[in-house]
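Notes from the 1:1 (GR / supervisor)

We went over the backlog. Supervisor wanted to see one worked example end to end before approving the batch request, so GR pasted a single chain during the call. The sequence is below; no edits were made to it. Supervisor asked that the structure be written out right there so they could see what the output format looks like.
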Amino acid sequence: MSKVVRYSKFEGELESIDSAEIMQMIQEALLGSESNNPYDPDPDARPDMDDLFNAILQALADRDLISDEQLSELMNADDPSETGVGQQINRMIQRLQQDGFIRTENPEAGIGAGKSGNVQFQLTDKSIDFLGYKSLRDLMGGLGRSSSGNHDTREYASGIEQSGELKRYEFGDTLTMDITSTLSNALPKGLENITEDDIVIRQSEYTSSAATVVMLDCSHSMILYGEDRFTPAKQVALALAHLIRTQYPGDSLKFVLFHDSAEEVPLSKLAQVQVGPFHTNTAGGLRLAQQLLKRENKDMKQIIMITDGKPSALSLPDGRIYKNAYGLDPYVMGQTLREVASCRRSGIQINTFMLARDPDLVGFVRRITEMTKGKAYFTTPHNIGQYVLMDYVSGKTKLVN
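Structure output shown during the call:
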């Protein structure tokens, strides 16, 4: 009898989990932390429905939401979809589809679809927005109640925004008068006797429009030595995209992956990109980033580069890739610094977030920082999000009177 009660209890708990909770539970799996393998024979293959089923199963087991008996039954079954847990997970997958979080070729696809029909699923715009919001909340939540990212309003536009702070008027200030406070000072002695000392103004912030390209290093070193650095980097990118869309809609944001070569990746595909058996073509990434920024008409143009390695590859004029795994190759370094100099001439600032402290990497980044008057940060996978987001917000505003 106790087994029956326990089984029904867990079964009821699974039915009560809504699609947003499911997405939150499998966030890490969706972003690729469990599938990043630089030696995967097909790193571009999208996950299929079996992968999704297994991700949900693992999340339920990690949270003790299924009993030992249920797990044993599923693991020993010839057809897992016929077990109680299997049917519950299939219903969760259907909820994800119905609520618009995933899209498949076959709306009825469930467990086994990956094996029999190779049915793959894609994350929808709703999923990307959800993951971006969740990442932003998690990354900024540890910074305190008054931190950036916890704004009361959801939208800010480029230009002048009132900050809410009041001050006495001084000669030269912009006359953004706070009527209530000014009248409170002037009425007791009569409006005809108002003086400059009675005027109170509301301070404002100037928010510049910005065009940003995030360069993500997806070379094999990003997951070496038992540490996944690539998944946190993707979380930062998704969070930054959500921040800009909701708080700074006048800004633009694009993403560039750099490895043996470089390519732009749309936001819709970002969550599921993976590392590969690649080197680090920093010059190629900078060249593509500049091309993207030249199309933008913004007050500020910047590159946010997230990397853990020295430049070790270069695209040759004939299309071949020149590689030197040890880094600091004079030819590679020379061409890379040439692209940095081009950024400087174009007024593009490069802010670099280093996930390693190799002395040669530090020296290289120091030269980039000096040449473009940018900034460099030593970060870890645990704090990179806070550094990137705070740097972005603080770089956009300045106080004006």
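Supervisor's comment: The first helix runs from residue 2 to 15.
Batch request approved.
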